[in-house]
Amino acid sequence: MNGPAARSPRRFLLLTAVAAAALAADYATKELALAAFEPGESMRVVGELLRFTLVFNTGAAFSMGQGVPWLFFIIAVGVVVYILFMARKLGSASWTVALGLILGGALGNLVDRAFRPPAPLHGAVVDWIQVPNFPVFNIADSCICVGGAFAVLLAFRGINLDGTRESDNRAEEAPADEDGAAAQAKGAERPADEAGGGPQTAADPKEGTGRGEGAVAPDSGAEPDGTDRAGTRRDEGGRSA
């Protein structure tokens, strides 16, 4: 089977694999950062282009929106539920990878908010990657951004979740619209024919007249009052009157 029913389980497996890989990479690197650095400690990696700096973020991605962790916990749960709901429509491998990255990133930060200090469901997210002129972030944030950018690109190119393209859908709708217009035109012609009584046939003047009273046989030469063309009246026996 190569239809949508056959593709859906494979796409869901791909979605799960991508999300699991993103979640595992995020969790492992956070644990390494916690083991290697003290809060606020920084280490230069590539000059001033890349530093490892351990911070705890109670806000949104990239250390934004501090102080309301419960709000971002609810948002993250909503994102996860929405992606899992849309997974049944997936037919595009590209969309599957994009949503898998977003799902894995959302789960990575969701785990921090749910289980890390200072309190359950109010935990701080571990951020540890720093580049110039940019907030400190983590692997989960990167996955969310890459997946989101990929999704925007797919939408811009007109690729749907099921793998179809908007141009293909419009091409399929055009013949259907033409067929509908033709059917309406035929439907409009039928009442016009019915209103005119259908095609009329002209009477043939050569056809004989009726055989009712007063009818004259073509070869009799008799007038309707019983006289012949010479004006002689004949009786029933054929004798001249």
Automatic annotation (TrEMBL):
Active site (catalytic residues): 127, 141
Organism: Streptomonospora litoralis
Sequence similarity: Belongs to the peptidase A8 family.
Keyword Ribosomal protein tagged: no
UniProt catalytic activity: Release of signal peptides from bacterial membrane prolipoproteins. Hydrolyzes -Xaa-Yaa-Zaa-|-(S,diacylglyceryl)Cys-, in which Xaa is hydrophobic (preferably Leu), and Yaa (Ala or Ser) and Zaa (Gly or Ala) have small, neutral side chains
Membrane topology: Multi-pass membrane protein
InterPro entries: Peptidase_A8, TAT_signal
An example Gene Ontology molecular-function term: aspartic-type endopeptidase activity
GO terms, biological process: proteolysis
Name recorded for this polypeptide: Lipoprotein signal peptidase
Cellular localization per UniProt: Cell membrane
Biased composition (Basic and acidic residues): 226-241
Enzyme class per UniProt: hydrolase
Stretch list, region Disordered: 166-241
Origin organism lineage: Bacteria, Bacillati, Actinomycetota, Actinomycetes, Streptosporangiales
EC number assigned by the record: 3.4.23.36
A Pfam family recorded for this sequence: Peptidase_A8
The encoding gene: lspA
GO cellular component: plasma membrane
Entry-linked NCBIfam families: lspA
Function (record text): This protein specifically catalyzes the removal of signal peptides from prolipoproteins.
